[in-house]
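Q: What would this chain look like folded?
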Amino acid sequence: MIKILFVTTHNYRIIIIIMTKVDLNRTQQEAKAFITIPFAHSLRYEYIGEGGRGLSAGEQIFLIDDVAVPHFHHPLTLHGTKTKKSRPRVQLTEEHSKMLDLYVINERSRESTTIVFPNGRVNYVFIARKNSQCRSLRRLHGHMEAISSELDRFLSRLNKRCLCKDDLGGGRYIVSGFGTMGKNVAKNIRPPNQPALRQSLKFAEHMELSKIVGGILSHIADCFRIHCSEVLTKNQFLLTLLKSMAWPPLQFQGELNQWMSSQYIIRRWGSRTKDDWPGEKSVVALHTDRGDIDSYNFNCYTSGGGIRNKGGPVANSDLAVFQNSTGGAGYRVKTCIEDTVVVVVMNSHNQLHGCIKNEDNIVEESQTWTTRIIPYIPTGVYQWKIRHPDGVPFMDIP
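A: My prediction, written as structure tokens:
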């Protein structure tokens, strides 16, 4: 049963607030926001040329409402790393956000928001609080609260050898799971393209971290079961194809709630983490994740520190998500909210996304940090598994 409470508009956006009759597993009814985003303002960002060729900074097109506007490229993507070629990416700024008049989802938003783009693409944003009306979101919040200290202790123990520099989107992260980048591995050890556990962490570190992350993914999958079952259904189909490539391992996830990913990264920044996770260049530029399969995935955001030790705002941590790979309509999510878990569901393979660089540095005053967990399935892992249905990955890390 669906009851329309009211229909209103906001800057030419149609916002419909409805009340749905919940299933028997939920104790209370809850309001959900369905937001239809028109092309009131539109971004056009082209950084890939013919044949998938990455364009140099000078060749790229960056337009708002078909007008070229001032912009700069993330320094890490502009200059690259010692081992990789640079792949310039524009850094979205507060001024760009204002020009685009991005719809904002923040602490005042409903706990479940459905975003519908003009082309019919659907995204979801969930805000899990201690007092969320949805029992699954309350459980997610409670679980994250229970394991946050353990996760922070683990991340703080890692030294700089574990941090990968990202010349695709910028920033630094740790990565865990299966990849197919070992092309220089001798054939007598394993076939070059056979998936293997990434060597950025020791085997014991992979397992310890995955025990923590597996529980988080399980709770998020349960939220999907309630709020966007089609996302979970598509992921469960991938699970039937790729089960042996699941990471975190399925034994670290709940028996009823499992999420298929083969790899995940964790990004972390803020003034309290500068010694172990340098904050310089942490903000992430506009990009799409073309190396991941074309499917729904999600980003999970929490924050720590702050006056009450429950997190809060962190500079440059808001996320912008757009309709397609070159932009179009978009929305903005405040990812760092005190005592809150934020989950954004999108297709990062086909949707342009990145952080918004703030005008003012608020992180020094608030002494907070952001932790973001992003699971996905690399295209190489998926393709190898389809070619080798009975194949299993290598775990050859000392």
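Residues 1-12, 14-29, 276-280 have pLDDT under 50 and may be disordered.
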